[in-house]
Specification:
It is a single chain. This protein is α+β, with helices and mostly antiparallel strands and about 150 residues long. Helix content is about 40%, strand content about 35%. The chain is built from four helices and eight strands, in the order E-H-H-E-E-E-E-E-E-H-H-E. The strands form two sheets. A four-stranded antiparallel sheet has the order 1-2-3-4, covered by helices on one side. Helix 1 packs antiparallel against helix 2. The two termini are about 35 Å apart. The model has no long low-confidence stretch (mean pLDDT about 75).
Amino acid sequence: MSQLTRKKQFATRAVITRALYTGALFIYVLFFINFMMEQSFWAQAISVLIFSFMLSAQYQWSIEPIRCSAIFVEHGVLNLLDTPIKLADVKEVIYCQHQRYEHVVRFRYHNRTFQDFELSSSDLIADLQLYHFLVAQGLVVRMTEDSSQFS
């Protein structure tokens, strides 16, 4: 099964996490000033390294890509926003940037029918991630700027 990978979009969670870690850093500095000045240099250095490692791990975890459950291909069926599309039935895909933050994807089938999807989610249209995902699945994808084809 292949899935579209995207970045985490939990802005509120990231802000809260960043605030908690900044608060923890502030508390740690106060602790360092009051208590650690009496400790040996190696104890101070180890505690600074541990806290630096914790900050680095938190940062890496917050930017780690997650799997997008909205778009995946399994057993020759593309599941796009809970709509199953058999890849064998698709003749071509037309991808159009309708407006700056609105993209339209049209699936044309061999039986001369079509199905349109309007996308405005920034994590799907940023850097044309969906376009590249469809190309990687072996679909014939045609990029166009002419939105009159979708009228």
